[in-house]
């Protein structure tokens, strides 16, 4: 079993080119012994963006913890806010934009 506080986890810059104003924390991954799923915490500062991209074989389950923003699925821009739950199927394009003056934080669970 593992128990730790998210503030104990190092913040990294996401590897996706074009991302700005964003950090990711790998809260649970194979480094902690997880074999099937990873849990990540994304923090998107005001004006921050995660550009449009897709993952051919990886679905995402997302829970918005704090703030507001826009989810762009390449067809429409969908407002998101704290408490929202998102499912992004494998192969579906998506991006995140924080156009507010508040921090946007979300948990993203992905298969390993």
From TrEMBL:
GO molecular-function terms, A-Z: metal ion binding
Segments forming domain Cupin type-2: 41-109
Keyword Metal-binding: yes
Keywords tagged on the record: Metal-binding
Residue spans crossing the bilayer: none
Gene3D superfamilies: Jelly Rolls
Name this polypeptide is given: Cupin type-2 domain-containing protein
Origin organism lineage: Bacteria, Bacteria division WOR-3
